[in-house]
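User: Please predict the structure of the protein below. I'd like the answer in structure-token form so I can feed it into my own downstream comparison script.

Assistant: Understood. Taking the following sequence of 401 residues as input:
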Amino acid sequence: MDFEDTPEEAAYRAQVREWLEKNALTIPPATRVGVTESKAWQKIKAAAGYAAITWPKEYGGMGGTSMQNVIYGQEEANYNLPGNVFLIGTGMAMPMLMVHGTPEQKSRYIQPALYGDEIWCQLFSEPGAGSDLAGIRTRAERDGDDWIVNGHKIWTSGGHYSDWAILVTRSDPGLAKHKGLTFFLVDMKTPGIRVDRIKQISGQSHFNEVFLENVRIPDKNRVGAAGEGWKVALTVLMNERSAVGNIGMNVGVDELIQIARDAELIDGPAIHNAAVREKIADWHVQTQGLKYIRFRSLTALSKGITPGPESSITKAVSAPRRQDLAAFAMELMDMGGIIQDRQIVPYRAAFADDWLYAPGIRIAGGTDEILKNIIAERVLKLPGDVRVDTGVAFSDLPTGR
């Protein structure tokens, strides 16, 4: 692995730093930031090409490399900027359209998504089909030049403020479950769509459940051939797991060490306790391991090589670690650990935020179990799970009812 920038990468990093110093739309700490601020920052980035560094120039990107995208992300992280509500649109939906969309679809949707004029969400998971996405039951039936869709989606991030959605449906239940799926683009203001916000334990409501009742979608909004939606959905999922796997923690081992120095146990400061030190050491080792796995990915990107299974490994380790480390820090703070008043809790209650947020990260983009299966089968070359539904028509699968 090479930990240093190449001369070309160093020059690009300097260019990015100079641009950010002049243009970064910084937000004061503790300021409540909404969609309006995010849209303003997206327009600034898009006009300069930094909102889509790896996209082809014909779509408004820079035609740059994945490594340049990483460098920009590293430098942007040094600024307190509005949140990115465009990840699903620019990171998943539009790259999918570049591969599977018609010329008319590309012309209509890519630029508004890039410049933040339209926000996208993802209507994939259902109450009975999450990790096993091919088990969806939302039905799409052809009606002339339209499709009539009925179903129930859940865990839809940003659905309450999104303009458009990518939607996967079942159009032919007589085929095996990975067949007979059809993919659509749907206007979230279409009659028959109802978005109900889900109250999270943190008090926030990032996720939603979405009900579709006789929703009429024009056939021109279908992506790919009818019945071949799984191929389109896989393109989205590949981008999703990469994005989710790179979500970092608010706080880490260094902050935990300071908490341990300040916390008093029966036998003295927590930092002197052997059990506490052992846990900190374990998380430090995991932190270093994750860092070098990322370095390996960056080295591959720098050489123009597609990284291997690092995204699955990184997420399988980092998401449980985030939850466990945050829980331990809260225990060291005793009763103070459950307080969420950012003005009085160390690190602005970031450990509590991480602890409450981590279970969602362990599900989003592939559960712990799914990722372990991927690592076992594709990295360790172990035998795959027995799949009794292979080749069976979806309508013939038992439902448990």
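That's the full token string. Strands lie at 120-123, 139-143, 146-153, 164-170, 181-187, 193-197, 208-218, 222-223, 264-265, 268-269.
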